[in-house]
C-alpha cells in the first residue's frame, strides 16, 4: 500500500505542475513511513517540501496555495499530530468554498496516517475520523486496499473540494493488485456478499471483518462485508441495499464507540431500514479511552472474536 500511495503521488506530480507536497520529513527522509520516498530527488524541494514542525503553519500555508490555484497535498506525520492544525481545517479549509459562494475551490488533500496496530506510543495511534466527518465541507476517505490507496488518492488530489485522506498505518505493508479503475469517492463496495448479516466497515477494520466472515462459516453464519472506503460522502444506497437484504448489521471500526462513526452509521441504517431489520444494529469499536500503551493495544482494537460475539447477539432466535 505504501508503494501504491507513492506511485499515486509521483503520477500526480508528473501530470499536473500545480501539485505540491508539504510535510515534516517528507523530503530527504521520504516520510516516516517512506510514502514520499524519492519524490524530492525527482521533483525538487520546491514541489516536495520539508516543513518545520508546525502543523498549523503547514496547513495554513497549503490553504493559501490552494486559494491561488495550486493543488497542495499535506502530510500530517501521525494522526494525533494533526490536532494543532484543526483550527485551520475547520475555520478555513472546510468553509472556503461556501464562504466565497463557490468562487474559490479548495483543492487541498490532507494525508493522515491513522489508527493502531503498529505498537505506536501516545499521539501515534489515534482514530480521529469522527472529528473530520462531523465538519461540513470536508470529504473523508479511508482506503483498505492497494487498489483503493492508489485510485482514491488520485481522485482526492484531482478534487476541487478538500479531502482528509486517512491512511491505515497497519495496512501500509499489505499487498494487493493495482486496478485500472476504482469506484469514485463516496462509493462503498460489497467486498463479500452474505445472506445472514452485513458487516459495515472501512480502513484497517476491513481485513478484520473479512477474517470474521471466514470464521463465521463454522458457526453457520453467512456474513457479508461492505467496505465504505470513506465516510463523507456516505453511500447510503449501497449500505442500505445490503442491510435490507440481510436484515441484520454490525458496524466495525477502531475509533471509540461513544459518538463515533458507528453511531452515525447505525442511526442512518435504522432510519432507512427500520422495517427490514430483524435485530438492532450493533457496533464493535475501540473502547472509550485514550489510546492504550503498545503492550495493551491488542485488547483495545476490534478483532474477529469481538465481531463474532456481536453477530451472536443479533437475535437469531426471533423469526
TrEMBL record:
Residue span(s) of domain Transketolase-like pyrimidine-binding: 1-174
Enzyme Commission (EC) number: 1.2.4.4
Cofactor requirement: thiamine diphosphate
Entry GO MF terms: oxidoreductase activity
UniProt signal peptide: none
Keywords: Oxidoreductase
Name of a matching Pfam family: Transketolase_C
Taxonomic superkingdom: Bacteria
PANTHER family from the UniProt entry: 2-OXOISOVALERATE DEHYDROGENASE SUBUNIT BETA, MITOCHONDRIAL (PTHR42980:SF1), 2-OXOISOVALERATE DEHYDROGENASE SUBUNIT BETA-RELATED (PTHR42980)
Identification of the protein by name: 3-methyl-2-oxobutanoate dehydrogenase (2-methylpropanoyl-transferring)
Amino acid at each position: 500500500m505504501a508503494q501504491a500511495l507513492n506511485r499515486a503521488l509521483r503520477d500526480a506530480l508528473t501530470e499536473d505542475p500545480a501539485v505540491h507536497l508539504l510535510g515534516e520529513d517528507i523530503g530527504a527522509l521520504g516520510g516516516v513511513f517512506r510514502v514520499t520516498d524519492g519524490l524530492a530527488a525527482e521533483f525538487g524541494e520546491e514541489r516536495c517540501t520539508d516543513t518545520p514542525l508546525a502543523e498549523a503553519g503547514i496547513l495554513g500555508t497549503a490553504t493559501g496555495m490552494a486559494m491561488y490555484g495550486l493543488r497542495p497535498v499535506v502530510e500530517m506525520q501521525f494522526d494525533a499530530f494533526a490536532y494543532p492544525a484543526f483550527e485551520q481545517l475547520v475555520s478555513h479549509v472546510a468553509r472556503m468554498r461556501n464562504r466565497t459562494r463557490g468562487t474559490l475551490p479548495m483543492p487541498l488533500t490532507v494525508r493522515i496516517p491513522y489508527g493502531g496496530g503498529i505498537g505506536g506510543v501516545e499521539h501515534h495511534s489515534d482514530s480521529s475520523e469522527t472529528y473530520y466527518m462531523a465538519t461540513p465541507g470536508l470529504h473523508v476517505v479511508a482506503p483498505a486496499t492497494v487498489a483503493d490507496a492508489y485510485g482514491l488518492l488520485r481522485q482526492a488530489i484531482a478534487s476541487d473540494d478538500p479531502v482528509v485522506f486517512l491512511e491505515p498505518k497497519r495496512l501500509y505493508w499489505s499487498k494487493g493488485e493495482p486496478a485500472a479503475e476504482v469506484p469514485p469517492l463516496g462509493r462503498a463496495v460489497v467486498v463479500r456478499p452474505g445472506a445472514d448479516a452485513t458487516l459495515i466497515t472501512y480502513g484497517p477494520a476491513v481485513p478484520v471483518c473479512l477474517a470474521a466472515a471466514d470464521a463465521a462459516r463454522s458457526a453457520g453464519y453467512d456474513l457479508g462485508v461492505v467496505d465504505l472506503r470513506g465516510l463523507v460522502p456516505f453511500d447510503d444506497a449501497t449500505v442500505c441495499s445490503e442491510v435490507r437484504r440481510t436484515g441484520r448489521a454490525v458496524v466495525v471500526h477502531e475509533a471509540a464507540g461513544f459518538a463515533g462513526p458507528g453511531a452515525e452509521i447505525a442511526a442512518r441504517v435504522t432510519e432507512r431500514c427500520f422495517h427490514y431489520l430483524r435485530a438492532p444494529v450493533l457496533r464493535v469499536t475501540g473502547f472509550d479511552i485514550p489510546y492504550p500503551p503498545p503492550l495493551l493495544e491488542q485488547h483495545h482494537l476490534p478483532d474477529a472474536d469481538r465481531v463474532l460475539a456481536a453477530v451472536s447477539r443479533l437475535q437469531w432466535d426471533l423469526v
